[in-house]
Amino acid sequence: DTGVSQDPRHKITKRGQNVTFRCDPISEHNRLYWYRQTLGQGPEFLTYFQNEAQLEKSRLLSDRFSAERPKGSFSTLEIQRTEQGDSAMYLCASNEQGWSTDTQYFGPGTRLTVL
Amino acid sequence: AQTVTQSQPEMSVQEAETVTLSCTYDTSESDYYLFWYKQPPSRQMILVIRQEAYKQQNATENRFSVNFQKAAKSFSLKISDSQLGDAAMYFCAYRSAGAGSYQLTFGKGTKLSVIP
Asked: Would the CB atoms of B106 and A44 count as touching at under 8 Å?
């Protein structure tokens, strides 16, 4: 069990560019979550997958954001036409359906800086 | 919508002493889960302790324990025998127990410093 991994760990981009982040959950975890954490705040929920189905999306997830989880394994989060307000840490978490306490295991995050 | 409030942006504790971090939450639900997560500097968030709302007994994990007051909607974390490695941001989080509601709602966090 290697834990949740995210790539890249850091991304610097210019306003208006598109960026894509990847998350690899713990193997056999069928639930995957994306959160955004800005400086001085707790993580905020963005979206959630069960297997390959995206079942819940926050109103924070504007039209410029899209997430996928093909084949129910890794997930990607794409931000189009980035804005300075998108600068944040993007966290991925996963867990396994059936655990009564549903603990979510977090990855190290991708820190995005939009110049 | 549920909200989680951590009223202490920063706390400090002397090594080997005990410290309590506060958390209150607002919900109209009767069944839910509460969590404390630890986020060390530049490292990933890890679970410290969790509590099911239907359980009256307070959860404990080694040096970490909670004081869960359901009526008061309070969920504080006590760290005993504080160690240097306990220095981190601590986040309180809430999750509904309802089917299909799996997202965590976090507070803004408390930064804990441990003084040698």
From this structure: yes
| Calpha distance B71→B58 (Å, rounded) | 14
Evaluate whether A91 touches B45 at the Cβ level (below 8 Å): yes
Average pLDDT, chain B: 94
Cα separation, A30 vs A55, in Å, equals 12
| In the predicted structure, residue A102 carries a pLDDT above the cut 80 | no
Mean pLDDT of A80-105: 87
**Which residues of chain B are within 8 Å of residue A31 when distances are taken between CB atoms?**
102
User: How many C-beta atoms lie closer than 10 Å to residue A21's C-beta?
Assistant: 21
Q: Is the peptide bond before A8 cis (omega within 30 degrees of 0)?
A: yes
If you search the block for the tokens 């760990």, which residue do you land on? A9
Distance from CA of A20 to the nearest CA of B (A): 20
Taking the Cβ of residue A98 and every Cβ of chain B, the question of whether any pair is shorter than 8 Å is answered with: no
Distance CA A103, CA A93 (A): 10
Output phi, psi for A86, to 5 deg: -80, -10
Q: Do B43 and A108 touch (CB under 8 A)?
A: yes
